[in-house]
Amino acid sequence: FSPSGCFFALGLADADYAIWVWDLRSGKLHKTLLGLTGIVWGVDISADDSFVVASPGSGEIRLWRLDDDKGRRILESANVSSGLTVAISPQCDLVAVGFGGGKIGVWDQRKQTLLATLSGGSDAILCTQFSPDGCWLFCCNIRGEVGRWDVGTVRKGKSEASYAVYRLKGANGSTSTLSLSPDGAWFAAISADHGDVHVAQSSDPDSTRSSNIGQVPAQGIWRCVTLGPMSNNASGLAAGNGGGAGKAGSV
After folding, report:
1. Which residue in 104, 136, 163, 224 has a CA-CA distance of 20 to 30 Å to 116?
2. Are the C-beta atoms of residues 50 and 19 closer than 8 Å to each other?
3. Quick check: 12 and 20 in contact, CB under 8 A?
4. Is the model's pTM score more than 0.70?
5. What pLDDT, in 10s, does the model give residues 189-224?
6. What is the pLDDT of residue 46?
7. Over 90: is that where the pLDDT of 58 sits?
8. What pLDDT, in 10s, does the model give residues 109-129?
9. Cα dihedral 52→240→167→157 (10° resolution)
10. Is 59 left (phi over 0), alpha (psi -120 to 50) or beta?
11. Which of 107, 88, 98, 94 shows the shortest CA–CA distance to 9?
12. Rounded distance, CA 229 to CA 235, Å?
């Protein structure tokens, strides 16, 4: 979904290698984005609804404009490993892509230049996300670790920019995805295998609390989680898995 709630984008895993973008105001298909050469692992829409960025398995990072038909741009050619996740900064200028080898590339999409290559460990990066104010970049990897960078120093091209990594208390197994609360003060990460959700303050990830969404069915792993606003030190959350199951709870 776009931050504005106006558009929804879906990457296809079949031989068409396309992205469908719906206008949620009209309920109609807005655009079909073509030209990909591999399965779309990650897709995101900019906060101003002007462009879509995708990271297909072919290793190319591509952008399409939504407000005209000028086609696509390529930020990186196929000489990189497959991008598994992609995020656009709230200011719409930075694009962060997490790769299978534990690296995160951060591009200035306006200048089409690579600003920094960040190291999130040696394991696959499964999720990247900017904080709502654009000051922090978060990631999680397959080892169950959550990383955080100061975006201000990343903008200066510093690859080791104020990086901190946290192994969430009680986390068992891989962390498949994370979600930030609307104010950016909290984040939630979910265990791919067990459905355990770990919620912590963004400024103090050691302050972890846990909530079990439920044992995953055999046909799928937990792949998404959404954290609502905090109220009275509690929040609602929802999660879904690859088996088609979805659950809601609180933490």
Report:
1. 224
2. no
3. yes
4. yes
5. 776 555 567 777 777 655 555 444 444 443 444 344
6. 95
7. no
8. 999 888 988 887 778 888 899
9. 0
10. left
11. 88
12. 6
d(CA 55, CA 11): 10
* Residue 13: other Cβ atoms inside 10 A: 12
Name residue 142's amino acid.
Answer: I
Yes or no: say if 1 and 8 are a contact pair by the CB < 8 Å rule: yes
Q: What is the pLDDT of residue 167?
A: 63
Contacts within 8 Å (CB) and 24+ apart, 228-234: 228/181, 228/182, 229/181, 229/182, 229/183, 230/181, 230/183, 230/185, 230/186
Distance between CA atoms of 101 and 85, rounded to whole angstroms?
12
Structure tokens at 110: 């306006």
